Amino acid sequence: MVHIGLWKAVAGAAVALVVSAGLAAAQDARDASAPPKAGGTLTAIIQPEPVILTAALNTAAPTGIVTGSIFDGLVDYDANLKAVPALAESWETSKDGLTFTLHLRDGVKWHDGKPFTSADVKWTLEEVWKKIHPRNQAIFAKVTSVDAPDDRTVVLHLSQPSVAILSSLNSNGAQVLPKHLYEGTDILNNPYNNKPVGTGPFVFKEWSRGNYIVLERNPEYWDKGKPYLDRVVFRVIPDAAARSAALEKGEVQWGVLSPVPLKDAERLAKLPNLRVSTEGYEWLSPWLFADFNVERGPLKDVKVRQALAQAIDRNAISKVVWFGFAKPATSPIPSTLAAFHDAGGIAYDYDPKKAEALLDAAGYKRGPDGARFTLDIDYIPYGDDYKRTAEYLKQALKRVGVEANVRSQDTAAFTRRVYGDRDFDISITWFAAFSDPQVGVNRAYWSGSIGKNIPWTNGSGYRNDKVDALISATQGEGDPEKRIQLFKDLQKTVLTDLPTLPLVELKFFTVEAANLKHPKASGDQVYGSFRDFWIDDGKPTEAKADTPKSN
Amino acid sequence: MARYLKRSLGQIAFVIIGIAVINFFLLRLAPGDAAQVMAGEAGSATPEYMAALRQQFGLDQPLYVQFLSYLKNVLTLNLGYSFRQGMPVSELIALRLPATLLLMGTSIAFAVSVGGTLGFLAARHAGRLADTVISSVALVFYATPVFWIGVMLVVVFSVLLDWLPVGGMASIESGLTGLGYAADVAQHLILPALTLGLFYLAIYTRLMRASMLEVYGQDFVRTARAKGVRPRRIALRHVLRNALLPIVTTLGVQLGSILGGAILVETVFAWPGLGRLAFEALFQRDLNLLLGILFCSSVVVVFVNLAVDLAYTVLDPRIELS
After folding, report:
1. pLDDT given at position A222
2. Could you tell me one molecular function GO term of this UniProt entry (chain A) (predicted)?
């Protein structure tokens, strides 16, 4: 125990350092005393390499990171996840909630010079978001028809109110594709998927496979005077130690989604030329959890699941396993979604004695070898941190007499095992909750997708008609207050039945060069654009009129 | 000779097609498919999305249809299409080939020349100080993990001394062309080639030393000595030439695996080579791409083998091919 105590102290100190350094640095980044300076090249890390450069067809993180600067969103999200104008200047919902109207910005052009109009939005919604997009089929499900009365107006007609739509209209959530290049083609195999044409501040230039992606400044950008940077180069750097070295040396100035190992973050944060910050991930709101396979063995018993929950110290997971880059989770809806987050007073505090008592009561007494039963734990193979989480669970469960095997496999085998073959007892993975739990949380509990081999759906095998009804009600409820109540009821039910144990809310971090300047990171900065970024090379600049941001 | 070549070529065609067929079925034993990986990476999925991907990848076809179309492709030397990358496989390989050949060529050339020389020197001074030093150094490089050497070289020469770039193949930011570009690539090449070269170098040093010493013990060398031939001439004309056969064999094996690249070194130095491409294709279940790379590798292996056989006859006229 002394050992663990020591670790906690070390990790705690590390966190304090990183956080304080991050805060100081963030202050610095927002220091608006100097006017933005034009010019320069920003080199950023992109890892893993994207598969495709069109986020409308693949919502994987690397695609989102690169295309955030090539495509504008209809809206952007500020740090409080409030929608702010981008391609859409304003929007309104009718009183009955059944019509949603977007007013588009005038004078926006695609990178090939063609005007951006409501026809592009209408076409993308009908042909891509509703048909191919991996997330948006659910979000836009209530859209019955789309009108484009003029070039700058888009009207969505809904069968039921659909509040979640406005929470997913940024460049990553709902990327608008140029109709003139896609209409009538085989969309998934369209060559422009890998040489995208957008409306954003940067124009796609070159993609050298396995090597780098280059974007260049869009001189015709609608937000005059922006972007400030001449070029953005995304470099593929597969090795974690090499990423640390490249950042330390200043060869790259920007890396998102925890680009270096957690233990390196602490060291890099102390360097004068770098800063480490956890801002810009609010729109993602990632939560890490353990799915209990409720269709198998002792975990069928809700008492056993509740017992195991109390055998696991979520504080230790966040401080020791995740080096403080996490916060203990009490509910499947992360606390960053403040309006919806409410555990309903249900807490599974760490109490191994009580866990043992519950397991005894459930009829699983310790055998002669001290073991009650054995479980298989599988974890998402996204790196050491997830593996350590699985190993921590193994140790914690052993303390209450439950043996566990930690099994490793690659991503394809993992998703097949959990979402297809269902051959596991506990699976550890993370979801992005997104700014509306309808998008990121409901999918973990909806029974319609069980065992259909669809990754990142209901992995526990939990079937509850009441929960299914609540989920369907949240999709069609127009009154925000009533909808919040529905989500509170949902949290209460699933935390009682506990098919899924929320472990921690992850805090991804960004490592950036100290002389890279930008306004406060937006809530979706990780998938956002470099429009407002500039490099302070320390040289005096000739005064350049700072164009006020048009919104 | 002509008969030998004719028979060999027949065997080669048979072997290559056999390998291709085995690969096809072997790779399908891996759990999960490309659509699942894509959906997994996307972080969200629906049945409709999965179906669209499977259709795009041709995974909705029955296995025998997939196999027949693959076989047709192999027989017409068409490597197929990587739906994941949205490019023909041959194009993807061609894009990565120069980087791989440059890295592997440089490091193997370095290893053979320097390693061979060191082994030669060690054998000539067997048992003396020079031999001990060379053998020890070779042993250290042989025993040290390649990726560790790589990371240490980066820490020392890139981060601390700031002499060389951390990784990548060229400074994209500088927009150099012509000679400037070549110099830039050469600068980026030093550390990865050295990392890989030092490991190979150890192999060639040890091999050359051992095989020279073996030849030194043979009767014809004693005869030459008794005749009064000068030691340098004995070493070069009599011993070295005979000791080269194992080197050529090892070189052949190594050249055969050249397309596999060096995954570790390519990863540590962000070198855009074929090894990483193959490695990633495996994890992404991009079977068309992986089959394409394996097919090319098998072709290279069998032809290098043939070349090694021919090289034997040149080095040692006593060997006959029949």
Report:
1. 93
2. peptide transmembrane transporter activity
Please list, in sequence order, all residues whose beta carbon lies within 8 angstroms of the beta carbon of residue B73, skipping any fewer than 6 positions away: B79, B80
A36-70+200-279+510-546 falls under which CATH superfamily? Periplasmic binding protein-like II (3.40.190.10)
CATH code at A74-163+174-180: 3.90.76.10
Evaluate whether A36-70+200-279+510-546 and A286-506 have a shared fold.
no
Which residues in chain A have their CB less than 8 angstroms from residue B50's CB? Answer: 453-454
Q: Does some domain include residue B44?
A: no
Please state which of the four CATH numbers 3.90.950.20, 3.10.105.10, 3.40.50.11290, 3.30.460.80 is assigned to the domain occupying A286-506: 3.10.105.10
B66 pLDDT band, cuts 50/70/90, is confident
Residue B239 is assigned to a structural domain of this protein: yes
Q: How many domains does chain B fold into?
A: 1
Mutation target among A205, A206, A454, A456 for the B interface, most CBs of B within 10 A: A454
Domain boundaries, chain A: 36-70+200-279+510-546, 74-163+174-180, 286-506
Tokens of B263: 């995954």
B117 φ, ψ to 5°? -60, -45
Residue B43 belongs to some domain of the structure: no
pLDDT at residue A487 in the model:
94
Using a CB-CB cut-off of 8 Å, the residues of chain B touching A137 are 46, 48-49
ipTM over 0.95? The verdict is: no
Closest by Cα among A9, A507, A5 to A262: A507
**Residues of chain B positioned with their CB less than 8 A from the CB of A208:** 95, 272
CATH number at residue B193: 1.10.3720.10
Asked whether residue B218 carries a pLDDT value surpassing 50, the answer given is: yes
Residues B307/B321, Cβ–Cβ less than 8 Å: no
Q: pTM score, two decimals?
A: 0.84
Nearest-Cα residue of chain B relative to residue A416:
B32
Highest mean pLDDT among A299-303, A522-526, B300-304: A299-303
Burial category of B217 from C-beta neighbours within 10 Å (exposed 0-12, middle 13-18, buried 19 and up):
exposed
Helix (H, G, I), strand (E, B) or coil at A289: strand
pLDDT in tens, A291-339: 999 999 999 999 999 999 999 999 999 999 999 999 999 999 999 888 8
Segment 10-49 of chain B within 8 Å of chain A by CB: 30-33, 36-49
- Taking CB atoms and an 8 Å limit, are B162 and A191 in contact across chains? no
Residue span of the structural domain in which B138 resides: 98-273
Model pLDDT for residues B69-78, shown as the tens digit of each residue: 888 888 888 8
Candidates A353, A340, A395, A404; CA nearest to A374 is: A404
pLDDT band for position A448 (cuts 50, 70, 90): confident
Per the domain annotation, does B24 fall within a domain? Answer: no
Tell me the chain B residues in contact with residue A457 when contact means C-beta distances shorter than 8 Å. 45
Average of pLDDT values for B194-199?
Answer: 87
Bridging pattern class, strands A426-432 and A373-379 = parallel
CA A193 to CA A66: how far, in whole Å?
Answer: 13
